Amino acid sequence: MPLRGKLLQQELLARYTSFRIGGPADFFFIPEDERDLIEGLAHCKKEGIRWFVLGNGSNILVSDDGIRGMVISLSSPFFRKIVFEGNTLTVGAGAKTGTVLHEAVERSFGGIEFLGAVPGTMGGVFFMNAGTYLGEIADAVLEVRFLDTDLVSRVLPKASLNFQYRKSIFQKNPWVIVEGKLALVPMVKNEAKSKVKAILDRRKKTQPLGIPSAGSAFQNPPGHSSWQLVEAAGLRGFSIGDAAVSDAHTNFVINKGNAKASEVFQLMRLIQEKVFQKTGILLEPEVRLVGEWQEDFLRDKK
Ligand SMILES: Cc1cc2nc3c(=O)[nH]c(=O)nc-3n(C[C@H](O)[C@H](O)[C@H](O)COP(=O)(O)OP(=O)(O)OC[C@H]3O[C@@H](n4cnc5c(N)ncnc54)[C@H](O)[C@@H]3O)c2cc1C
Fold first, then answer.
1. Catalytic residue among 80, 166, 168, 263, which?
2. Would you call 225 a catalytic residue per the annotation?
3. Known catalytic residue: 35?
4. pLDDT tens, 4-23?
């Protein structure tokens, strides 16, 4: 059956990432609905074409050479659903965090206020177990539905999703998240609104807003803050080409204008090396490398 969604070729991915970096995708597919998604994936499997599921592109570094194979974007209305049933909220993987939070607060629900500081789609949030000092999505998840490698729709409850700090089962399995169910907390609307405002105000004070980045470059090692380790290594403001350690938040790597993916990569490797030399701590990247890379970040062999 022919694909019904939008299929583009040689689509430049810099347009779709918060870093504003990334070369072209061979194919860029926006399925119209779940059946169309399955058709597209089945075609890839049959032809041996690799695929990558893109969310809002807020946590990825796409190589300058782009991505060979098919990038799938769940940005059509079908995948952006937001449905309330009592305290339960069902969200499509393509729903934007800001919209989900707004709709919840307007109905006097809380429990996901931290999403105010997390740009992205719900698919990316489940995949990353995204969160802030206010909590993480694992706190609210009841279950997630996805297509497995046989393109069969499956549902796993929270207990089986292996959520840990910025980790989920999805990072170890090439599944496509379709939707998730969240348990919300009834709250006085103004209380929920002021919690969201507080997190947004804090973000304005502590982060380089409006400058392309992918948020925190590195996860916080147990008992440490990565920004302090980067600062102590003397790297505030350090740059390679147009990729720089932010002055406002030293765990943010920013694109000052025309940074290449390779420059961001080199800078992050250098940060890993300098921090390791000084402290013996190997920073684990939070930003995910996507596309064609000859090298990887330094990884803990454990
Ligand atoms: C300014 C800024 C501030 C940030 N602050 C925070 C913060 O406070 N806390 C935090 O946790 N993060 C933060 N981030 C990072 C980012 O917002 C989160 O990681 C978010 O969850 C990424 O969602 P996304 O839709 O953009 O995912 P993407 O970056 O598009 O993708 C991330 C990964 O998820 C996978 N993925 C996405 N959707 C699906 C799907 N449907 N099925 C399978 N896999 C999928 C992708 O393949 C990729 O591997 C920040 C980023 C920015 C730019």
1. 166
2. no
3. no
4. 999 999 999 999 999 999 99
